[in-house]
């Protein structure tokens, strides 16, 4: 099998932050050289937790699998020449900031190597008021909007496990890099990409900014919310509460259709509040009497979306995971055999994976320098000229389509009034902020797939299409006569990207679910808690948006291979594996030592204070501050800022003592901050280099100076909803231009235009197709 990126060369100059980006290139076949400075291999990135019993950083081991690593004492003289020669032959370089251990800035680096795509991965980006701020993973998650409503109301908000913000940023950076490579094909030109992982995470959390901009409601944490968890006889299982009236009816039937469940509240499309509580009570009893597998299989048979909550050890031994080859077993010497998450993609029915652990080399590869580019060709936005057909609903496939539309592609969304995108309908009517933000900038084509003529319209469109995104249940396209074999018989150059909960192959491939379902089976639900015995509950729809970015990344990589080989690809993005990939180091630790992967909440094993602390409420809304001290100097800076408001013990000046007395220090810091303004403390602490950040919700993100300066809140006039704030870009490209942000379409709004402009049909033929129900031309009837 030809790797999607096998002709590309990548240099990783990160200090460890964002190293997952270049690993994805290695998974897809690129040759990746990581250069580390310090000579002994003890440099930054090799000390990060989790660590094995011998002190090996599993954070480093997981994110650098598949790479060659060259150790240099430093960059000066000969070392500088080595790096420059490697960059002369590379296509992409990833760096952690504006100075990649080389003379000059990134722009000057680009001038020396104009063919090179240079990707800077930092928490805040290279511009904006917070560009120089100190960030930790907890600070990034807090400011990215993940933390403020995660957890149960009885406990403080709880951050996601692992390097959640860093890795979301890294995967988004990998996506930006392949888009830049695609744009550079005609000219050979590189560019500088500046990515903020905080903004990448904000984009990937949910649609909270546009929802807030319309309803002006501050969401609060309330546990699992619409995705409740229930105890079974052998652990937890999740149900996703219905989003459509028909699904509520199916759930009631599954619960036995109690005769007393009748009356006005039961007749409401989404049930009344009291009626929902009765349903939840009966669900708890139903789950309590069954094993997770029994309740999952029973629910699936009835069309009720139930998924087991798997622990790390259960993921590693799961039959579906094993058959999909989600993990690769690698020999780690004295540590034994470790299970490495193999890769985020399947291609043409097979797993694509890293080849093995990182391998030390003594010299750079023998790469021929890349040719000088031709900068005279104006390539426009990077995906101009690409046409996408989107056959999907919800978020994963539509988000991939939105990304393509944002950067210039023509994206045709397939839906009709008979079969609309459910996301469009969840709030009543046919437009709402959640649908609008994911579907902005697209064309709507109302070919009705339930009819023969409607399917023929889609077949007629296929020769004109580059990419298809779909996230229907496994097998749906095949049953419609639009499976991979038929698609490629019409257009062998198409790149088809499937995204299902469990992927398109394996024993559980036919089971259905949503983003919160993926969290449950991918280990994130179990790990996202203050401790192993603490309650769990997070309301975000993650990993839907992240899966959309992986779909977009895979599609562009597929187009790059198509341009080399002349043939398309079928790419499989399993949403649960998007979750597993973010927990790769934790699961590697679990494979080496059973019980090593456990929830730890907001705290750090190495540093204190390191937590979320409640500050003075703002207009009745809780206000929380992430505060992290990484060394003794920062602790002293905290004490100076607090003054006598922070009661401290003299022996707390040493890090080891603070770790031992974590509880007392947390109580003292909490007492100090309880009456402080979070925004004031964020600014004061960052001014002296202490990592601090408010737990931002959409109202604060909409006005935060850094978010505004980076262009994150974008105004959109949306028919059917009115003026909205939607999520702007989390990265800039020096050659990308400005991203497009146009309204989302009405159902069938562009049916006539697509039939005339692309399919060459005349108005009489369009009228006949509309009359027989094969074409939905929307309200305008165009």
Automatic annotation (TrEMBL):
<keyword id="KW-0808">Transferase</keyword>
<dbReference type="InterPro" id="IPR050509">
    <property type="entry name" value="CoA-transferase_III"/>
</dbReference>
<protein>
    <submittedName>
        <fullName>Unannotated protein</fullName>
    </submittedName>
</protein>
<dbReference type="InterPro" id="IPR003673">
    <property type="entry name" value="CoA-Trfase_fam_III"/>
</dbReference>
<dbReference type="InterPro" id="IPR023606">
    <property type="entry name" value="CoA-Trfase_III_dom_1_sf"/>
</dbReference>
<dbReference type="Pfam" id="PF02515">
    <property type="entry name" value="CoA_transf_3"/>
</dbReference>
<dbReference type="GO" id="GO:0016740">
    <property type="term" value="F:transferase activity"/>
</dbReference>
<dbReference type="InterPro" id="IPR044855">
    <property type="entry name" value="CoA-Trfase_III_dom3_sf"/>
</dbReference>
């Amino acid at each position: 099998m030809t790797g999607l990126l096998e002709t590309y060369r990548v240099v990783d100059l990160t200090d460890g932050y964002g190293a997952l980006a270049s690993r994805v290139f290695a998974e897809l076949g690129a040759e990746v050289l990581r250069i580390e400075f310090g000579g002994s291999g003890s440099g930054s990135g090799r000390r990060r937790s989790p660590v094995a019993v011998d002190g090996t950083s599993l954070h480093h081991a997981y994110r650098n699998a598949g790479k060659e690593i060259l150790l240099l004492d430093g960059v000066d003289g000969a070392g500088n020449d080595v790096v420059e020669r490697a960059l002369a032959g590379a296509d992409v370089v990833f760096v952690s900031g504006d100075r990649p251990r080389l003379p000059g800035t990134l722009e000057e680096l680009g001038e020396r190597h104009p063919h090179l795509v240079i990707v800077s991965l930092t928490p805040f980006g290279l511009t904006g008021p917070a560009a120089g701020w100190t960030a930790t993973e907890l600070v990034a998650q807090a400011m990215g909007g993940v933390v403020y409503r995660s957890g149960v109301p009885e406990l403080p908000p709880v951050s996601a496990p692992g390097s959640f913000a860093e890795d979301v940023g890294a995967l988004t950076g990998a996506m930006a890099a392949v888009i830049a490579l695609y744009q550079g094909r005609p000219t050979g030109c590189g560019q500088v990409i500046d990515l903020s992982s905080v903004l990448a995470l904000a984009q990937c959390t949910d649609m909270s900014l546009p929802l807030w901009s319309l309803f002006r409601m501050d969401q609060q944490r309330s546990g699992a919310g619409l995705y409740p968890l229930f105890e079974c006889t052998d652990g937890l299982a999740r149900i996703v509460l219905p989003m459509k009236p028909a699904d509520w009816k199916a759930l009631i039937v599954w619960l036995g259709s109690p005769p007393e469940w009748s009356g006005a509240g039961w007749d409401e499309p989404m049930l009344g509040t009291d009626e929902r509580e009765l349903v939840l009570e009966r669900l708890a009893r139903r789950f309590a009497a069954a094993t997770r597998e029994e309740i999952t299989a029973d629910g699936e048979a009835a069309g009720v979306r139930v998924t087991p909550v798997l622990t790390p050890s259960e993921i590693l031994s799961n039959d579906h995971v094993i058959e999909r080859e989600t993990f690769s077993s690698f020999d780690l010497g004295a540590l034994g055999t470790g299970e490495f998450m193999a890769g985020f993609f399947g291609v043409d029915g097979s797993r694509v994976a890293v080849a093995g652990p990182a391998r030390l080399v003594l010299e750079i590869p023998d790469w021929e320098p890349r040719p000088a580019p031709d900068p005279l060709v104006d390539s426009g936005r990077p995906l101009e000229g690409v046409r996408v057909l989107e056959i999907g609903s919800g978020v994963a496939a539509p988000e991939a389509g939105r990304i393509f539309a944002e950067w210039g592609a023509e994206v045709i969304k397939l839906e009709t009034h008979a079969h609309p995108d459910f996301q469009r309908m969840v709030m009543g009517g046919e437009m709402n902020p959640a649908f609008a933000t994911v579907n902005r900038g697209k064309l709507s084509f109302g070919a009705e797939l339930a009819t023969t003529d409607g399917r023929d319209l889609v077949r007629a469109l296929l020769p004109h299409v580059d990419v298809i995104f779909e996230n229907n249940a496994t097998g749906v396209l095949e049953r419609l006569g639009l499976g991979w074999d038929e698609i490629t018989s019409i257009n062998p150059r198409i790149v088809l990207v499937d995204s299902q909960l469990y992927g398109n192959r394996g024993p559980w491939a036919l089971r259905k679910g949503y983003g919160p379902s993926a969290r449950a089976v991918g280990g994130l639900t179990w790990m996202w808690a203050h401790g192993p015995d603490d309650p769990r509950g997070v309301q975000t729809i993650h990993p839907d948006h992240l899966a959309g970015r992986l779909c977009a990344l895979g599609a562009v990589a597929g187009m790059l291979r198509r341009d080399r080989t002349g043939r398309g690809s079928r790419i499989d993005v399993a949403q649960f594996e998007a979750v597993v990939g973010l927990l790769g180091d934790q699961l590697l630790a679990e494979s080496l030592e059973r019980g090593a992967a456990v929830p730890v909440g907001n705290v750090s094993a190495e540093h204190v204070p390191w937590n979320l602390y409640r500050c003075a409420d703002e207009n009745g809304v809780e206000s929380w501050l992430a505060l992290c001290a990484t060394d003794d100097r920062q602790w002293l800076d905290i004490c100076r800022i607090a003054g006598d408001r922070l009661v401290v013990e003299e022996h707390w000046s040493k890090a080891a003592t603070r770790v031992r007395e974590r509880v007392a220090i947390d109580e003292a810091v909490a007492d100090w901050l309880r009456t402080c303004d979070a925004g004031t403390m964020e600014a004061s602490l960052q001014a002296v280099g202490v990592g601090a950040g408010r737990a931002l919700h959409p109202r604060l993100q909409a006005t935060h100076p850094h978010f505004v300066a980076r262009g994150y809140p974008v105004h959109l006039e949306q028919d059917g909803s009115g003026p909205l704030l939607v999520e702007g870009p989390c990265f800039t490209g020096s050659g990308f231009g400005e991203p497009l942000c146009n309204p989302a379409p009405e159902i069938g709004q562009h049916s006539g235009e697509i039939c005339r402009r692309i399919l060459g049909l005349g108005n009489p033929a369009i009228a006949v197709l509309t009359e027989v129900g094969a074409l939905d031309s929307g309200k305008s009837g165009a």
